[in-house]
Amino acid sequence: MSVAAVMRRLIPAPIKSCIKRLLPGEQAPAPSITEGWEQYAASYAGDGRKQLGDEWSVPDVVGADTTAADFVTYLDQKVFAPFIGSCDTLLEIGSGGGRFTQILKPKCRRLIATDTAASMLKLLRRRFAGETGIEYLLLDGKGFASIQAGTVDVVFTYDVFVHIQHWDFYNYLTEIRRVLKPGGKAVVHHANTFSELGWQVFQSQMPESLNRPKLPYTFTVMTPELATAFAVRAGLKVERCITDVVRRDCITLLSAPA
Ligand SMILES: C[S@@+](CC[C@H](N)C(=O)[O-])C[C@H]1O[C@@H](n2cnc3c(N)ncnc32)[C@H](O)[C@@H]1O
User: Fold this and answer.
1) Are strands 134-138 and 237-242 parallel, antiparallel or unpaired?
2) Ligand 1: does its nearest atom lie under 6 Å from the Cβ of 168?
């Protein structure tokens, strides 16, 4: 199957049907990023075996040497666990259905799970019902105003910054810098447009992206160099840019000055 066909399969169904209803030649108004994910979560029925987010653990698509079932554990063992270790307060940006929340929870005493989509937080509450040490925070997409400066040990975000725009990317980095304790750490997963797979994604999303606002699921053009430049301007130190574990993307490891 071509990359374009695979990417089309990953487009949230409500957005696809909205595009299909249009007359030939007509363009759907692009929903905001929040509206797009809100619709995706609201339409998620769940079949009891799969959780929302499992559909994104596709090793072939992202260029990871593992299986779909082991994807999250593989990334944890290779990247997250060695860098994060254990901590007191961990903030996750864009928890979605909790695909990574499940492995982050045992690493901290207090986990602040956040999302801009209320429906995602609803799913998350259902998934972690009865568990203690987890708080749910609805974001406005502009930062974490209710979180005090210098109170977080680790910030984590996966499969979120691939979709947000550059201004949001930089703004979140400044917010990460603000809330991190001195020496605190951040794991930021983002696109790597000029990797082999990243470039295929860029090309496959061209036809539906021309002369219109960005669609919620479209990948934002990003590189390790650009992410590094934004991070440095936000006052963060870049520990490593990892491009060989999920070869389509980049996982940038950051720290706040001690
Ligand atoms: C592709 S899902 C990834 C969810 C989860 N991190 C995972 O990997 O399974 C993207 C998530 O980011 C959320 N999101 C989108 N824009 C956001 C923003 N500006 N701030 C925080 N979360 C956002 C969406 O609502 C959605 O839950």
Assistant:
1) unpaired
2) yes
